[in-house]
Design brief:
The protein is an alpha/beta fold. It has a single domain, classed as 3-Layer(aba) Sandwich (Rossmann fold), CATH 3.40.50. It is built from eight helices and five strands, in the order E-H-E-H-E-H-H-H-E-H-E-H-H. A five-stranded parallel sheet has the order 2-1-3-4-5, with helices on both faces. Helix 1 runs parallel beside helix 8. The structure holds flavin mononucleotide.
Length: 197
Amino acid sequence: MAGTVLGILGSPLPEGNTAKLFEQALKGAADAGCSTTTLHVSTLDYQPCTEMMFCKDHDTCIMDDDMQQAYTKIRNADSIIIATPVMTMGIPGGLKSFMDRCQVFYMAKYVRKEPLVTSEKRRVRRGLFICIAGMNIPEVFTGARLTAKAFFDIIDCPYQDELLISDMDTIRDIATRHDLLDAAYERGRAIGLHLNP
Ligand SMILES: Cc1cc2nc3c(=O)[nH]c(=O)nc-3n(C[C@H](O)[C@H](O)[C@H](O)COP(=O)(O)O)c2cc1C
């Protein structure tokens, strides 16, 4: 079995520290035999949820923007990797709005009880959460982690694994830390190997 792994990048920096870990994780998944596809959230054109509730009765959102292609990619993915920095003790606002717009999956799954993700996909899908933070305090990932877990649940992608790296203010450049880049690669590879044992 091959399988497609979708990577969702929450950092606005295409060559930042999160992006470097993100690329390693996707490389790991590719080396395990998966095809990969990505969504760089900061490059998408979309608006935050305005609670028009169209998705209560429909499989999509009434707002016709780049979220439409995102919904398709999320539905079709065999596994999903999300990578993001912590901002203001949670995930960046753009990524949060992206997740809020995935209320279409919530309504289908919990309200209409007609999930948008097929039962076959739901069985195999797994989620990996990569998150980095400047500070080195115990609770720095609490908010981001809760949000990521809720999101993976809503999109029917069980939260399989996480790589949480604090103290980036000291590390500064992740490229100097091959152990952390290798950890991201191995986490991504494990996601791929789950699809291609
Ligand atoms: C707007 C903003 C808010 C941030 N807020 C926090 C925070 O609340 N806690 C924290 O530990 N780090 C915070 N950071 C630091 C980032 O998590 C850290 O610098 C990270 O390495 C950035 O990753 P990137 O290079 O992929 O953008 C913040 C950074 C920015 C730009």
